[in-house]
Amino acid sequence: MGRPKRLLTTEDIEKLQSITRGNSTAAVGYRLAAVRAYTTRPAYEVASFFDTKPETVIRWASKFHLYGMQGLENKTRGHRRMKMTPEIQDAIRKWLEDDRDPAGRPVHWTLKRLCLEVKEVFAVEISVAAMGSTLRKMGMAQKRPRPMHYNSSREAREEFKKKSAKQNRGDKSRRG
């Protein structure tokens, strides 16, 4: 059993016919033509002619019925609003540059600790990944520890640091 066509009244059909003749916007005109065809044909026929799905034709008809021409226009899709306002970003920048928390105590910042502090001070919950991308957008980079092999010894690491420091000093003297 097909869907009842009570979505469009005779007034809607007359309105559609008058609008379709005078409208030049391609997307709206295309949808209006489909809705107009839907007044006399089943949705599956109109959909096959307009190369779309029957559900789409029915949705266009119901949007036209509810909102008129505005229902058929392309709507802009907004972006998610940032949780971090410029004031919060400025405060975070100050915390990171001073290496101090809002109370003035020295602290070693991690992304997780920073997220917890922002939640506590500003009541804004933000994920660790979002905090990292926000810091990158602010032009800041998080410090990453030197990778360490699980089987390495402290002496071997210290020896490596000494060798690399000597090598770096030698490279600088050769350049200058």
Briefly characterize the structure.
Helix content is 59%, strand content 0%.
Topology:
Layout lengths: L9 H13 L3 H13 L4 H7 L4 H14 L18 H13 L12 H12 L5 H10 L16 H22 L1
Catalogue the unreliable spans.
none
Number of strands: 0
- Structural class of the helices, strands and pairings? mainly alpha
The secondary-structure element order is HHHHHHHH
Count of individual helical segments: 8
- Strand share of the residues? under 5%
Write down the overall mean pLDDT: 82
Span between termini: 87 Å
Instruction: State the shape.
Output: elongated
Instruction: Please estimate the helix content.
Output: 55-70%
* Main sheet record: none
- Gyration radius, in Å: 32 Å
Short descriptors:
176 residues, mainly alpha
